[in-house]
Design brief:
There is one protein chain. The chain is an all-beta fold. The protein has a single domain (1-81), classed as 3-layer Sandwich (Rieske Iron-sulfur Protein), CATH 2.102.10.10. The protein contains no helices and eight strands. The chain has a three-stranded antiparallel beta sheet, with no helix packed on it. The protein is globular, with a radius of gyration of 16 Å. 9% of the residues are buried.
């Protein structure tokens, strides 16, 4: 999920359309050095933030796979994605940590 320059939110699956590797593979960075574009850490492909379109690299002309987002009461939520937490019964006393890790099932 990324907040754009006009304060909207966009979300993409963390996978390069060229090879399927995580965009942040290697250095852990998602952005070009000037933070103007998303980039693939393996092959250097660059993507427009607002559209996910690859404008340079081996997947030129292809798009990152978008993820639907919604802002509800000021919180950004994923729409229509199956979470690992959906497969477990809820136990309020199982984890006393107030934060929750979210993992999206791969397709």
């Amino acid at each position: 999920m990324i907040r754009t320059h006009d304060n909207a939110y966009v979300g993409y699956v963390n996978a390069c359309p060229h090879d399927g590797v995580w965009l942040n593979i290697g250095s852990g960075d998602f952005f070009t050095q000037d933070r103007a574009f998303l980039k693939c850490g393996r092959h250097g492909a660059t993507f427009e933030i607002d559209s996910g379109l690859c404008i340079d690299g081996p997947c030129n002309g292809k798009n990152l796979q978008p993820i639907a987002l919604a802002v509800v009461d000021g919180e950004v939520c994923l729409c229509g994605e199956r979470l690992v937490e959906d497969d477990r019964p809820f136990d309020a006393f199982d984890d006393h940590d107030e934060t929750m890790d979210i993992m999206i099932h791969p397709d």
